[in-house]
Amino acid sequence: MFDDRILRDDDLGLILDLTAAPAGTPPQMADALKAMAAIEDGLEANADEGRLVGHYWLRAPDLAPTDDIRQSVLDALAQVRSLSHGDHTDLLWIGIGGSALGPKLVADCLSTEADPLRVHFLDNTDPDGFARILSRLTPAKTLVVVVSKSGGTVETRNGMLAAQAAFEAAGEPLAPHAIAITGEGSRLWEAAADWQARVPMWDWVGGRTSITGTVGTVLLALCGWDLDGFLDGAARCDALTRRTTDNPAAALAAAWYTAGNGQGDRALVIEPYRDRFALLSSYLQQLVMESLGKRLNRQGAVVHQGLTVYGNRGSTDQHAFVQQLRDGRNDAFVHFVETRDPGALTLGVDGSPSADHLLGFLCGTRSALTEADRPSLTIQVPDASARSLGVLIALFERAVGLYAELIDINAYHQPGVEAGKKAAGRTLTLLGRLSAALSDESQTASALGETLGADAGLCWRLLHHLAATGRSALSVGERPAEDAFRRGE
């Protein structure tokens, strides 16, 4: 008997096949849909930070709750369309988190050999990573885009300073080659006053939902990719996922809820069977885990909610962790992602198209999981185009918002991230204090920690870093606790 738990929208070419997924709709789904409608109408959804949540308005400005917001989105889009790569051959994108994960997905999905720009990313603060990327670039031919909403993100500023130093070493000023994407009036906004362009970001758009805003549209415009198709795909998917029935985002959120018992008991494993979607899992890790990984619910009760996300590429992973997904711990919910378009025609080992083999591997893995009573679902979009990518992004954004309503948490703040930033600041302060406390007399980490009122283990780690960077001298003891440190030569 045919299982008809398949949602299909012919306009978008989107199919959500739930026939191998757990069935059930949480009773609170109707309220969740109403809550999402209120957010789009301008509800202050991020009450903890006193902010609206408006990434949906980025692809449908007419839905914005105020004329000022609508006009600011339209003005920014007009500015983005006016940007030009000039005679540059390379694009260096500097950002972190939502300022890089979305752009990396877009670039990996849409890039071709015919593109006017080769795209590179500085999205960490690893000096070796900086050097590897910058060594490949000719500053006079490199367009630099720096992305930071606050303008003060340490990792992004470090990347910008590294790029600036490379430009200076080549005798090339950075400003004529640079574009800033940041909040108006931010530290970066002021620093970029003489740059080629300054493009705004808004406090009502979180980093993990910013890809259909200027963070994504600047990249699409500069590289000549289908900006209109990308926004149209997202907007049309938004319209589809506002429905009270046959709503694929609601069905996706309901499947997550049912499969994980409303507690996130199953990881979401993302398995794209197209290489152009290979970074989808990395992008969704932030979108899903930063949004839903929360200690408290809206009532202040400790709930420790969240959904774990991982994955790579489907056929690749069949030779890796799919073994565990089928025969090991029963704690995963696999999401197969495919395209109707088979891609370029190449013949495989038996003379049939390689696309046949790809489909066979997908269906075979899904069947093997079902035989072992392991849940999965399949998402199909027409192709790996900008429009289809916009559809996927909007689908998952809405599903995350609905799931957050089902479990009653604030999906739009990130207190854990802020806690990590504050702890990093304290660590850097201690590093400076340790450096200042060193003398010509060797001391152990425990002795220095006692003097400074700091944890001895952390001091030991930081003192070794000072030694590695030439700011302290190290005498290695028989045991780590006996290592001794003094002022560097």
Task: Write up this protein.
With 489 residues, the chain is an alpha/beta fold. The protein has 3 domains: 187 residues, 3-Layer(aba) Sandwich (Rossmann fold), CATH 3.40.50.10490; 171 residues, Rossmann fold; 72 residues, Orthogonal Bundle (Arc Repressor Mutant, subunit A), CATH 1.10.10.10. It contains 17 helices and 16 strands. The strands form 4 sheets. It has a 6-stranded mixed β-sheet with strand order 1-2-13-12-8-11, sandwiched between helices. The longest helix has 23 residues. The radius of gyration is 25 Å and the shape is globular.
Q: Which properties best describe this structure?
A:
Arc Repressor Mutant, subunit A; six-stranded mixed β-sheet; Rossmann fold; alpha/beta; 489 residues; 43% helix; five-stranded parallel β-sheet; 3 domains
